[in-house]
Amino acid sequence: MRTPFIAGNWKMNKTAAEGVEFANEIKAELDAIEGVDIAFCPPYLAVPAVAAALQGTKIGVGAQNMYFEESGAYTGEVAPNMLTPFCRYVILGHSERRAMFGETDEGVNKKIKAALAHGLTPIVCVGESLEQNQAGETQAFVGGQVRAAFDGLTAGEMAQCVIAYEPIWAIGTGLTASVEQAGEIIGGTVRAAVADMFGTETADKVRIQYGGSVKADNVAEFMAHPDIDGALVGGAALKASFVDLVRNAVV
């Protein structure tokens, strides 16, 4: 059985002080929910303070990105070893990073390997645009992203990763893939690609989240699908109702 995993991606929201206040507001309720892994992914500057606020709880902390080198002349970047004192997870390859900041499959692959080498659990994002979806290219595109992202990993390394399938057209738009659509891609494309690369036993261990306008009132439907193991949550993770979302994910 794969443990459900709900991660909140705060994106570029909340200062360190606001993040701590929010964490303190809801951490006790979240910590009491059994049967689910939970993580907050704040902006870089809020990570240490939020991690300190969450000490003693089961709630993990993740970064929203990282570079694959440990040090050097990479102005503005953050190395994996800078995250490890505070973070258990790191989001890699988010569609916003790919679209706005030119991230490539090759770069994501390097980041995954660096994260694993430093004991971080990568949450690796894949997903297609509306145009690709409407053109019937979803399976080929998303499957290609999976194969490129995890190229060169061992089966043991792959089993440590989390994948988030986020159709780009459903992120922050209010549009949501149906449970059937999401489940078909997560099981028939994403998990199938992992199985083809690393074997069915490994694919069965990998947790695959859905992301894209997930809210408290629809998360249970997604979680009822046998191939959907959690959610990468955006806007709904910035409100106290995130507690209801997590609670509904395990009902």
Short summary:
With 251 residues, this protein is α/β, with parallel strands linked by helices.
Structure commentary:
By secondary structure, the chain is an alpha/beta fold. The protein has a single domain (5-249), classed as TIM Barrel (Alpha-Beta Barrel). It contains 12 helices and 8 strands. The protein has helices spanning 16-31, 47-53, 80-83, 95-101, 105-117, 130-134, 138-149, 155-159, 179-198, 200-205, 219-223, 242-249, and strands at residues 5-9, 37-41, 60-63, 89-92, 121-126, 162-165, 207-210, 230-233. The longest helix has 20 residues, at 179-198. It starts with a strand and ends with a helix.
As residue ranges, the low-confidence spans are: none
Gyration radius over CA: 17 Å
User: How helical, in percent, are the residues?
Assistant: 40-55%
CATH topology description: TIM Barrel
What is the count of DSSP helices, taking H or I runs of 4+ residues?
A: 12
Domain count: 1
Kindly report the spatial arrangement of strands forming the biggest sheet: 7-6-5-4-3-2-1-8
Mean pLDDT: 96
CATH superfamily: Aldolase class I
What portion of residues belong to β-strands? 5-15%
- The helix/strand series, from N terminus to C terminus, equals EHEHEHEHHEHHHEHHEHEH
Shape annotation: globular
Total DSSP E strands: 8
Main beta sheet, described?
Answer: 8 strands, parallel
The CATH architecture would be Alpha-Beta Barrel
